[in-house]
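As a next step, we paired sequence with structure tokens, yielding the entry below.
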Amino acid sequence: MYSLSIIILTLNTMFAVTTKLEENSNYNHLMEYSRYKKIPKIIEESALIALSYYPELKDTRIDFVFKKNIKQSVMQAQPKFDVLLNGKGNRAYQINISSLFKLNHAAIPIHQLPKNIMIGWIGHELGHIMDYESRGLIGMLRFGFGYIFSDKYIKKAEQKADTYAVNHGLGFYIIETKRFILDHTDLPEVYKEKISRLYLSPDEIVEQVRKLEEQRAAKIEE
């Protein structure tokens, strides 16, 4: 007759094997979204999780690039100008990521931020790429001009990126990222004021998520 310790050891081994198989399955699923992407290994998992919410971008060329300094931003999505003349669906994009998350009295490597925050931040930038993909060449030129010269246009573009992210199921991550920024006691107030002024607030995102869930529930009942 088996002793209790052997039974427990067997169950623990089975659990470990099952967990490993689930992890491998999840990893294989995420790797489907790595096609045509260049992602630094250190942020690969966060980037792939964010990308998995955007199946439309599965075949879109996107490079994730660490930068020492991005003016007034932590991340920045932009089209690659050498292929900007290509038609929709044939462009390439680059998401610049500040290598350091700068605080008032310190700076930490960006990859050390909590995973959910990285997913939310990248998910927002992918929302910008969805916006770019919907625009023709003239629309992209207007976007660039408006983003440079108009705060009103910036606000519209940033809130549109948030909305894309929420509509693709990233609402939880976007809310968590906004609260992380706005509640962070050591982030520069100038940066937090910019986020409050130009982006959707956590409460507005919660309301968007609520309406989205109501719409989905209504479709199920039909």
